[in-house]
Amino acid sequence: MIMTKFAENPPTLFLVAKPSSDFLPQILAKVAMEFVNKGWAIYGDNSLVDAWRAVGLPIEKLTIKPPKTASLALVLGGDGTMLRAARQIGHLGIPLLGINLGFLGFLTHPADHCLYSIQKYFEGKLISDKRSTIHVSLHREGMELKSFDALNDAVITKGALSRILNLEIEIDGNSAANLRADGLIVATPTGSTAYALSAGGPILHPTLSAWILAPICPHSLNMRPCVIPSGMDITVTLGDAEEAHLTLDGQVGCPIKPGDTIQMTDIGRCVTLLQDPKIPFFTVLRQKMHWNKE
Fold this sequence. Notes:
- It is a single chain.
- With 294 residues, this protein is of the alpha+beta class.
- The protein is 17% helix and 37% strand.
- The chain has 6 helices and 19 strands.
- It has helices at residues 24-36, 49-54, 79-88, 114-122, 195-198, 281-288; strands at residues 12-17, 41-44, 62-64, 72-77, 96-100, 127-132, 134-140, 143-150, 153-158, 165-171, 174-181, 183-187, 210-216, 226-229, 234-238, 244-248, 252-256, 261-265, 270-275.
- The strands form 4 sheets. It has a 6-stranded antiparallel beta sheet, with no helix packed on it. Strands 14-13-12-9-16-17 form a 6-stranded antiparallel beta sheet, with no helix packed on it. Strands 3-2-1-4-5 form a 5-stranded parallel beta sheet, sandwiched between helices.
- Strand 4, helix 3 (79-88) and strand 5 form a beta-alpha-beta unit.
- The longest helix is centred in the first third of the chain and has 13 residues, at 24-36.
């Protein structure tokens, strides 16, 4: 269980939201005053201002800048918003509590239970769910160009009109495969219900220390998704390619060139999601994937 004693005086809430959601104003009206009435300092960015004003919330209670730290990040959106929040502040150790304004919502609490979820937070009855990340670094001619942390997945793909890619894959320094395909997905357990699932990969329980390697439309049909321990380093070298991209969590990335190497390692960095212990992982799967339908 989590504790609700805070070092900050007053405790600090950081709001991360999907501003384009039609549901944002009404959910914001419900949840914001729960923290205002308890004397919390509330921070956000300019994208919140219109929704904040639209429902008559006191504008002087919203500080438009990111705090240096926070007691809690309240994420109002879908899984994509949660991934953005994880990348933005999750690495700082700030716990993330998500309220679903999107569709699937594997990582967030239902919008119609938002006040219930917040009350459980104040009562210390939510659990801290530590989710592993992949540290991804791009190297060219021996130099590191960029590095990222991904909560869901790292994806190497070809351009829309280009030929299939040639990828040399090493695991823990040992040659594993020469893959000719449209691309490759390396996914965490959190990302196992995302793009990797569509590519035929398995669903992993979030507590597992493992990664999925899932080829995208492989030229050789015997190349199947596989699961490896997350303690094994992965190195992918791009061979012949007309156009290729490295994408993290479907949100950020960069073009890559033949000869580039992408290194993926587990550096022990986790993102903390706050979950309701009464809604276990397989309950979420049954609801979101309609396993309860005959």
